[in-house]
Amino acid sequence: MMQQREVTDTHNTTWACVQAYTGVDSTVAAEAAERSETTGGAVPVVCTPTGGAQTVRLELGKDWFENLSDEELTAAIEAAQ
Fold it and tell me: What does the alpha-carbon distance between residue 15 and residue 1 come to, in Å, rounded to a whole number?
């Protein structure tokens, strides 16, 4: 099951963020997720907004879902725009 995390930024835009390749139950998806991890341990995360903003792609630590605060996640989104 894909885990999705939602945050709202200072412009009142709600962002739905998911780690790329999660939620797909296959060997190929698991391999793709493993290969997408950077040497520094970052993983690709895609954040899709409500409204007119454009989707952003982030590289965050593997533990982003549990350990990155909402403020840190929205700051990363804003920096990527």
Answer: 19
Which of 60, 74, 75 is CA-nearest to residue 14?
74
Both structure tokens of 55:
């989707």
| Strand spans (E) along 11-51 | 14-19, 42-49
Backbone angles phi, psi at 36, to 5 degrees: -80, -15
pTM for the structure as a whole: 0.77
- Check pLDDT > 80 for residue 19: yes
* CA dihedral sign of residues 19, 20, 24, 27: negative
Distance CA 65, CA 1 (A): 14
Q: Backbone phi, then psi, for 38, in 5-degree steps?
A: -75, 165
Q: Which residues sit opposite 61 in a β-bridge?
A: 42
